[in-house]
Amino acid sequence: LPTITDDSALGGAVIEKSLRFNYNAYLNRTPSSAGNRKTFTISAWVKRCSTGGVHPIFSRYTANSDAGFLGLYINSDDYIYFTGWSTVYLKSSRNYRDPTAWSHILLAVDTTQSTSTDRIKLYFNGELQSTATYNAPSQNADLNINEASAEHMVGRYSTNYFDGYLAEVNFIDGQQLSPTDVGFTEFQTGAWKPRGYYGSYGTNGFRLDFSDNTNNQTYGLDKSGNGNHYATDNFSTSSGKDGDSFIDTPTNNFPTLNPLVRSGTSQSLSDGNLTRSGGAFKCMATFEALNGKYYFEYKAEDGNGNHAIGVCQINTDQRSRINTEAAACFAGNGEFKIEDNSQTSGFATWGNGDIISVAIDTTLTTPKVWFAVNNSWQAASGNSGTFNPSGGYSLTSGKKYTFTVDHGSGSSSTTGTCFFGAHQGGFNYDPPSGFKALSSKNLPIPTTPIINPDQHFDTLLYTGTGSSNIVEGLKFQPDMVWVKGRDTNGYENMIIDSVRGGTKSICLLYTSDAADEGLGVDLGGRRII
Known about the structure:
Elements: H1 6-9, E1 18-21, E2 26-29, E3 39-48, E4 55-61, E5 69-74, E6 79-83, E7 88-95, E8 103-110, E9 120-124, E10 127-128, E11 131-134, E12 151-154, E13 156-157, E14 160-161, E15 164-173, E16 183-185, E17 192-194, E18 206-208, E19 231-233, E20 245-246, E21 257-262, E22 267-270, E23 275-278, E24 282-285, E25 293-300, E26 307-313, E27 327-331, E28 336-338, E29 355-361, E30 368-373, E31 376-377, E32 393-394, E33 401-407, E34 414-419, E35 436-437, E36 470-471, E37 480-483, E38 494-497, E39 505-510, E40 518-522, E41 527-528
Parallel strand pairs: 25-35, 36-41
Antiparallel strand pairs: 1-15, 1-20, 2-12, 2-19, 3-8, 3-15, 4-5, 4-12, 5-6, 6-7, 7-11, 8-9, 9-10, 13-14, 15-18, 16-17, 21-24, 22-23, 23-34, 24-33, 25-29, 25-34, 26-27, 26-33, 27-28, 29-30, 30-31, 30-32, 37-38, 38-39, 39-40
C-alpha cells in the first residue's frame, strides 16, 4: 500500500516537466469569446535565467494604442509588475533575482471587491506581497485581459520574451484564488510546494503543464478540460541540448550554471544557463554536490584548446584561473590538474563535438573525481577506458565541491554546453554505477532534519524610529543578526553577533567596507528579539 504522508494529505503534486523559454519562444491564443474581465487568477512556477530586460509571464496584446495591455511580468529593475496600457496597477516592493530556485507567482484579481486593496493581490511563494506602487482599478472595472479577439501570450509581450523556465502555468477565469488553492507550506521545512488544482477554470481558463513533448504544438495543450490550447512558437522537441522539454521542475530542481557566481564580464550564458561562451575564468553550478555520487557532462562547441572542465571548492576565488589549489580540471590539450598538484599530461586530447564526463564522490572522507572523453574514462597510467571505482583522483577532505566550467587561458574564448541530466533524453552516456544526476531529489535526506526552520533562522522588516527601538517577531534569540537598510539613508550593512557583542555598545562588521571591525558603536538601544 502507498504510504500516506503529510504531503499527500495536503494535496501535494509532482510536477513532471518544465518548458525552457529560449531566445524568441512563446505561446499564444486568441479567444473567440470574452471571459470574465473583472475576476481572474494567474498562477505560474518560474525559474529565471537572467536579470535586466522585460520578462513577460502572461500578457494580452494588440498593436492598437487604445487596446494594448502588458499584463504580468518581471521588469528590467527585477520587480514584479501588473500593468495596463498606461497604468501600473501594481509593482512589488522587493526584487526577484534568484536564478537557482523555482518560485511561485500568483496574481489574483477581482475588481468587484469594495475594498480597493483587495482588487489586485500578488503572492510570492504563498506570501502576500507588499507593493511599492498600487493603483487599484475602479470597482467593477473591466480589464483588457480576457477580451475576445485579442491575442493572449505566455512568455512574450511585443518584442520582449521571457528568459528561463516555466512550469504549471494556470489561468483561472472568473475566480480570485488564494495561494492555498494551488500550493501549501511544507510543515517540516516551511518551503512552499505545489498542490494540484481541481476546481473550475471558466470560459478562457487553461492549464499548461508542458508534459507532452510529442511535437512542437503539444507543449501548448490545455489540460484543464476546456480545450483552450495554445499555439507554440520557436520551441524544439529535439533530444539533447537543443530540446526545450526539461525534467527540471519545482518538485525536482536541477542545477544550471550560476550567472551570479563567475569571474569577469567576458562571459555570456545562454540556453537556459546551460551554454557558456567567453574568456572568463570560472563558472560554477548553482548548488553543492552534497554527500553523494554525482555525474555531469560537458560538450565542447568549438576547437579552442582552452576548455577546462571539472569540479572546484565552492569558496574558491572566482577571479583566479583554473591553476589554483581549489580546482580539479581536465583541459582540451590532454592535461589535468588536481588542486595544488602540478598540471600533468597523460589524458586524451579533445575538442569540438567531444563530450567530457565528470564524476565526483563526496561520500568519501577524502572525496574523489574521475574524468572521461566520449565515455572513455581517463587515467594517467594503465588507462582501460572503463570506469574504475577504486581509481579516481583525491580531493581535499572537509571541503565542499560543485561542478565547474573553466577557461584555461586569457586569450580567445570557448563555448560549450553542460548536461546536468534535466534535458529531454537526459545524459549522452549512462553514468557509472551508483552515480546520479545532481538534483534536489538526489541530495541526501538529512539524518536530523530541521523542523520549523523559522525557529532557527528568519527575516524581519521594521521601520526605524531614530531612537530606542525594539524589533520583535523572531521565535528564537539570534546569535548573529545581519541588518540592511532598504532605503537610501547611507547606512552600511551591519553584522552583529553575540561573540563580539555587548549590551548597547556592540562590535560591528561592515560588509561593504574593507576596514577592520568597528568597536564600541552605540546602536541607541536597538535590540532585535
